[in-house]
Amino acid sequence: MALPVSLCMIVRDEAPCLPTCLASVRDVVAEIIVVDTGSTDDTVAIAQAHGAKVEFFSWQDDFAAARNYSLEFAQQEWILVLDADEVLIPSAVPGLQAAIADPQVLVVNLWRQEMGTQQAPYSLVSRLFRNRPDIRFRGAYHELIDDSVAEIRRREPHWQVATLDAIALQHWGYTQAALQTHNKQARARRLLTQALAQNPQDAYLCAKLAAVYLAENADDQALSLLQQALATQPTEPLVQYEIHFHLGLVYQRRGEAHLAQQHYQTAMALPCPPLVKLGAYTNLGSLYQEQRAFHQARTLFEQAIQIAPDWALGYYNLGLALRGLNQLPAAIQAYQKALELDPNLAAAHQNLGVVWCKLGDLPRAQQHWRQAIDLYQQQGSPVGQQLEQELRTLGLLPHF
Known about the structure:
The protein is of the alpha/beta class. The protein has helices at residues 18-25, 43-49, 63-71, 93-100, 146-155, 176-182, 184-198, 203-215, 219-231, 237-253, 257-269, 278-290, 294-307, 312-324, 328-341, 346-358, 362-378, 383-393, and strands spanning 3-11, 29-36, 53-56, 78-81, 86-88, 105-114, 122-130, 160-171. The chain folds into two domains: 3-177, Spore Coat Polysaccharide Biosynthesis Protein SpsA, Chain A (Alpha-Beta Complex); 183-393, Serine Threonine Protein Phosphatase 5, Tetratricopeptide repeat (Alpha Horseshoe).
């Protein structure tokens, strides 16, 4: 039996991914509401074929306005908000059911796995909430319900915000293919710049725009925005984390290791959920790797694995540290665990080849190098061809 939940979505030209998204919630929600903002592909037909009620909204460069329009049509007691590039993980459904059955819960925060990203593999999003006219999104970009929820809780302090323990969503929108297809970076820069011009003291907007500039390798602009955000002295721990984490990344890129280390450590000490802080653990560990401080790197990567036992990159990073310590059998185990969790992790095969070569087993090394090269090529990465050429030059890989 479906939960008393209305799925509310805004979409535009999402035909490739919308069927997977809607299939993931088909037996979970009681109704599906899709608001189209100007599709020219088969998005509307796909939504209708999945039983959605489709409405239309003229795009105004304002995500909150479109989101709030979709909420107006919800008839169920609860609302779930998804984007077309997200899917609901089936194992999370029992937790959702238990959370919305609690009469004291107003909002359920959901853990989202960011597919294809290394810096922030998990994020916490407020996407499941009671259907009330005073819960609405604010913000033209990176829109949130947080302010309206805070206002309700000030008036009605008995309400609680719950957080589901399990990973509930997978998000594919930050993969390189998705970013290029939808030109998301340019849109984000434009909308965030407009919003920040109206609210120059908004640390959250500064941090988000800085993240866009960092993705474009515009480090000077990012640093200026992050310093501007820090000067406002934000009190929200998640905003503080994002500022310090990205400051660490800027200084690490600039070769200012001491400052990078300070900001990563500050980020790690903040009272945020551990999953949010994986990026800081990972980047600080990588910084130690660069300094050949392999023991410190190993400690951080082991802590990251404790936080996220199913995160393939955590085991891969641990393998790198163990290799640096010349603990080669343990490094092999770490790489193998990474591949067990993510068989498409080409770099794990590449480094397994290096370890087996060091151990004198060239045939096994060549087997992993070939798998790495094939995976890199399948993924459209130039690393595969570079690796093949280097190995042939060294005489470690015959022509095949």
